[in-house]
Amino acid sequence: MPFAKCPNCGQSFHLHIKGVPVWPDEPNEEKEMLCPGCWIDPQVGHQVYFIREKPIKFDPEDLGVVIEKIMGAELETGFNIQFDDGRIELLTRDKIYVDLKHHNSTTR
């Protein structure tokens, strides 16, 4: 089964590829591609983790909720994240991992 490694959060994960008879190159070679948690577009209300280091540690103090999405015409999109301890930080997409267990929720 093919593997990939996310360049954003550093996690390795399995790929399920339909309609591709053979994975190109070496069968156990790890490809680099975004994982679902780093690929999903964060929305207001999504629970997310702050990516402080690679691979991500999923520390409870790094769990927060997107409270605002700031679209920049010239700058990268920013996200205001409110953490459980009350602090609010403005993060760019490369520092956010969407909590897949709760990514459809709109509240905590």
Please write out the topology.
Blueprint: E1 3-5, E2 12-14, E3 30-32, H1 36-39, E4 47-50, E5 63-70, E6 78-83, E7 88-92, E8 96-98
Parallel strand pairs: 1-3
Antiparallel strand pairs: 1-2, 4-5, 4-8, 5-6, 6-7
Quick gist of this model?
This protein has 108 residues and is mainly β. The chain is built from 1 helix and 8 strands, in the order βββαβββββ. It has a 5-stranded antiparallel beta sheet. A 3-stranded mixed beta sheet has the order 2-1-3, with no helix packed on it.
H/I helix tally? 1
Unreliable stretches (pLDDT < 50, length at least 5) are none
Strand content: 25-35%
Shape: globular
Binned, the helix content reads under 10%
List the strand order in the largest sheet.
7-6-5-4-8
SSE order: EEEHEEEEE
Radius of gyration: 16 Å
Q: The biggest beta sheet, please?
A: 5 strands, antiparallel
Overview of the structural elements:
This protein is globular. The protein is mainly beta. The protein starts with a strand and ends in a 10-residue tail after the last strand. The model has no long low-confidence stretch (mean pLDDT 85). The longest helix is centred in the middle third of the chain and has 4 residues. The strands form two sheets. Strands 7-6-5-4-8 form a five-stranded antiparallel β-sheet. Strand 6 and strand 7 form a beta hairpin. Helix content is 4%, strand content 32%. The chain is built from one helix and eight strands; from the N terminus they run βββαβββββ.
